[in-house]
């Protein structure tokens, strides 16, 4: 790969790796990382959790959203070394005991998943929203999801899913 | 993936961070939320040799100063800034300017100091796909400028896109810095060089510890507007921030600060337009005259696909609306939130 080769040529000096302690969906891990590794790389490549996606890698699409100590952050712009001692929740942590979380179920019920590439990020942003604000208005839902881009659904079904999950009188349409 | 290696040093306090930056030398950069720095590192237009991480330092909560203004820690995240009751009640304009930055995720990560120190942007520079196959432009140490091919060597017309800086300049805020040679206080308006290549004029290893706003006078009003393509999650087309004070009869303007952001290498304060407004009785004709003066003075650079004439039209429409809103607030006709 052209870029990787030139990158190596420019920084030949070996940078120390270090061990970080990370709790992922309640499970403790000790992981060896380099400063340049992001949390998404660690989740996908070192822990094997493929739910969190890589997209723009520029902060501009939201597919990499995870909850870091409860706050929705962009995994593509979070260095793993900065997560030492912290707790991360990913889409794999939403279902409990084989039971989808209400927000996951509502996404299915509303047809809010098409290609599914944005879904993990949407679910994490929606989860953060509902933990902060259990009955958000439509305007609040749209504001909270402004950082998550979907190219398929047109967003209406996603907004409806969050209304359904928060018990605001929206009935399932896909059964 | 970031394609090059760098050292990472966590700092426990800002003085320690400043000392680390000095020790690690020219290639070291401070990092707050990393939302401005890391996207640039991902496309390798910035290649620090070391990062000094500020994220482990707990910011102080906002407080009221002895003068009656606010003191806000530079490491405060934009989400915390937009939510802090002291900010939403005392300085709703600042809360509003933080609320319109990026997305929930960017605001959870990004800090106030990082927002002010963000780099200028240009469609040619901040893109992922083609940059590595193109000759470097002036900003990257090369010998050309793509959008402005006639620019003389070294002149870069990239644009400073902070949504918060125009609000802070309109509020006459100051920054407080930490540096080995002793910190200082300076007006937010003074922290910019006006040069696209190196837009922030702080010293190396000088860090922003706090933003301090002065108390607000009686009959004070504000207006703020950010134009963007989607109305959310976008850098600005243009930002307009206005503060003004009316006399006791609330008919005439006694003081005004009008700042336009995201149209040049730094926020532009339109002094001529302010002079037109101040000392006069407020009416429609005065608004029109003020807007005309601002348009003559602002000299926007075309950026991100927006032509100069589009930006001027934008300014004509929104500056008038923002002025009207500021006067309404100063007269107590609109709620201040
Ligand atoms: C998708 C996306 C959308 C965005 N949209 C907007 C927008 O609409 N409006 C807007 O204004 N910005 C926007 N931003 C830009 C930026 O991310 C935010 O403004 C954010 O507040 C930057 O803060 P940070 O802490 O993440 O900065 P960092 O990336 O950590 O730092 C930015 C710069 O400031 C320096 N720095 C950091 N902390 C300090 C300090 N304490 N003292 C001195 N220097 C310091 C760093 O060395 C670096 O040069 C966007 C970013 C992304 C990724
Ligand atoms: S305006 Fe500045 S950043 Fe953009 S191409 Fe020209 S020199 Fe480069
Ligand atoms: S991959 Fe992180 S925002 Fe797009
Ligand atoms: S479902 Fe395809 S991007 Fe959202």
Summarize the structure.
Chain A is an alpha+beta fold. In chain A, 33% of the residues lie in helices and 14% in strands.
Describe this structure in words.
The complex is a heterodimer of chains A (175) and B (337). Chain A has 175 residues and is an alpha+beta fold. Chain A has 2 domains: 16-93, Beta-grasp domain (Ubiquitin-like (UB roll), Roll); 102-165, [2Fe-2S]-binding domain (DNA polymerase, domain 1, Orthogonal Bundle), CATH 1.10.150. Chain A contains 6 helices and 5 strands. In chain A, strands 2-1-5-3-4 form a 5-stranded mixed beta sheet, with helices on one face. In chain A, helix 3 crosses helix 6 (156-165). Chain A is elongated and about 55 Å long. The model of chain A is unreliable at 1-12 (pLDDT under 50). With 337 residues, chain B is an alpha+beta fold. Among the domains of chain B are: 1-54, 2-Layer Sandwich (Uridine Diphospho-n-acetylenolpyruvylglucosamine Reductase, domain 2), CATH 3.30.43.10; 220-336, Enolase-like, domain 1. Chain B is 30% helix and 18% strand. Chain B has 11 helices and 12 strands. Chain B has helices at residues 14-24, 37-42, 78-83, 85-90, 92-99, 104-109, 112-116, 164-170, 271-277, 284-298, 308-330; strands at residues 7-10, 28-31, 50-53, 63-64, 70-73, 174-178, 185-187, 207-213, 220-227, 238-246, 253-261, 268-269. In chain B, the strands form 3 sheets. A 5-stranded antiparallel beta sheet of chain B has the order 4-5-8-6-7. In chain B, strand 6 (174-178) and strand 7 (185-187) form a beta hairpin. In chain B, helix 9 (271-277) runs antiparallel to helix 10 (284-298). Chain B is globular and about 60 Å long. The N and C termini of chain B lie far apart (42 Å). The relative contact order of chain B is 0.12. The model of chain B has no long low-confidence stretch (mean pLDDT 95). The structure holds flavin-adenine dinucleotide, iron/sulfur cluster and FE2/S2 (inorganic) cluster (FES) (2 copies). Iron/sulfur cluster is lined by residues 122, 124-125, 137-139, 145-148, 156-158, 196 of chain B. One FE2/S2 (inorganic) cluster binds at residues 113-119, 150-153 of chain A.
